[in-house]
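Task 17 of the worksheet. Students: predict the tertiary structure of the chain below and write it out as structure tokens. Keep your answer in the requested format; marks are given for formatting as well as content.
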Amino acid sequence: MRIYVGNLTYRSSERDVHKAFESYGQVTMCRLAIDPQTGRSAGFAYVEMPNEDEAQNAIARLNGKEINSRVVSVSQATVEEAPARPERSSRPERSSRPERTYRDSSDLPRHTPRQPRGEQTRGEKPRSDQRPRNDERPVVDNPWTRRRPPQGK
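Model answer:
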């Protein structure tokens, strides 16, 4: 029978829990849950005892008793069923938008090719090599920037 032991201190070890249950019968397994982020005890453990009568006796005697100066709760472990997964069909769900059908190449959407890199069309910004150099740009005396007008020009 599998037994849940809760409300353990963080300093508790498997040896402490095993020793507490061993006095009531044979213990086949004792697992202390470890928090993966901190590496310390998560505050609960699972104990497995092969004999049902010994396990029921240990539950009755240890529930509400102290282990490592803390009152623990002991009960029979319950197996929680994983929620049922929804069945998946072999075809993915269709969207609510109607599917487009193209009759011939004249109905296909037209894509315009990109302009070659060297050519410019109207409305585009000039490339970096066509922009004015720093000494040709107008200088504004702005107290919030570090740029100052050149002295002596």
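Marker's comment: The beta strands are 2-6, 29-34, 41-48, 73-76. The helical segments are 14-22, 52-62.
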